[in-house]
Design brief:
6 helices; 5-stranded mixed sheet; binds adenosine-5'-triphosphate; 2 domains; 7 strands; binds magnesium ion; alpha+beta; two-stranded antiparallel sheet; Heat Shock Protein 90; 301 residues
């Protein structure tokens, strides 16, 4: 709330300064009509001041917004780290102090394991995001079969969320289609898209992954869900670092806002594109990844 107030204050302050400078300039022009040389000089001078003020205000507003997002990220991050640790601690204490039947004990171990997986996931996500920012990092290029890449990513997400097969439907992918890329990075990208699709689904999960070859040597891969959907105004923003759509129904789904930022950087590094589409709240979303298909060097002709 305080931030919002200070944002409004600075915006109003900036606008007042701009108006003041314009008034000054107009008044000055009227008073000094005779002195043409001075006039020209003055106009340039005041224009420079006004430009400076506009730039300054824009910068300030952007900076304040970024600060807000970073705060939200820190909160989410703390939550993401604290929850599994607290849970593991609780289970460990129970196992230590009580004489539990073997079956119960095993069940507790499973919960602890999945909590530590979650913890590891969060840490890896943050590491990946900072790695992504290092522009120079070399990718480990190889030929990646799309069919295998998708199958593997789907398998990982199915087991992470204990999904039955029907909850993620995979379309037919031609076994011959390969792209040139870094397998583990591409897996991270599709893992994140699928993770979102599950996370932002309602109770009934209904996800599909399909591919379509396009003219010009591209393949489109669609990850479609029937979950919350994304409001039209947010469709572009979701790829920004730390950005999370403010959404009441999704308030209890926690995250760092890094996932799609990572996805976009990875896909861009592979010469591709990713974009989101949604018919609005409640109508699900579709994320499309477009990658260049690798030409077959040893084709028979
Ligand atoms: P993380 O992936 O790091 O755990 P996150 O899921 O919040 O955190 P992103 O994956 O970058 O971050 O997603 C950014 C935001 O975009 C999400 O907070 C969510 O509001 C929105 N979003 C992403 N995918 C979907 C989807 N399939 N359906 C609806 N909203 C989505
Ligand atoms: Mg995510």
């Amino acid at each position: 709330m305080r931030r919002r107030k200070s944002t409004i204050f600075f915006v109003v302050f900036g606008i007042c300064l701009i108006l003041f400078a314009i008034a000054l300039q107009v008044g000055w022009i009227l008073l000094n009509l005779q002195q043409i040389a001075m006039l020209v000089f003055g106009i340039i001078f005041f224009a420079a001041i006004i430009t400076g003020l506009v730039l300054n205000t824009t910068f300030l507003v952007r900076e304040i917004r970024r600060n807000e997002q970073q705060n939200a990220f820190l909160n989410a991050m703390t939550h993401e780290l604290k929850t599994p640790i607290a849970s593991i601690k609780l289970y460990l204490e129970t196992v230590k102090t009580r004489d539990l039947p073997e079956e119960k004990r095993r069940e507790f171990y499973d919960v602890m394991l999945s909590d530590s997986d979650r913890l590891l996931n969060t840490v890896e996500q943050v590491l990946q995001a900072s790695r992504t920012r290092e522009k120079k990092r070399e990718l480990n290029y190889s030929d990646v079969k799309i069919a295998e890449l998708i199958a593997e990513s789907v398998r990982v997400v199915r087991s992470r969320y204990n999904l039955v097969k029907e909850e993620i439907v995979v379309g037919d992918f031609d076994n011959d289609i390969t792209v040139e890329g870094d397998l583990s990075e591409l897996k991270t990208a599709f893992g994140n898209l699928l993770d979102n699709a599950v996370k932002y689904s309602n109770d009934e999960i209904n996800i599909s992954v399909r591919g379509r070859v396009r003219t010009g040597g591209w393949i489109d891969i669609y990850v479609k869900d029937n979950g919350y959907g994304i409001p039209a105004s947010e469709v572009r923003r979701v790829f920004r670092r730390f950005y999370r759509v403010p959404n009441e129904s999704a308030d209890n789904t926690k995250g760092t806002g890094l996932g799609l930022y990572i996805v976009e950087s990875i896909i861009k590094k592979h010469g591709g594109k990713v974009f989101a589409k949604s018919r609005g709240i409640g109508f699900g979303s579709t994320f499309t990844v477009r990658l260049p298909i690798k030409k077959k060097a040893d084709s028979p002709e």
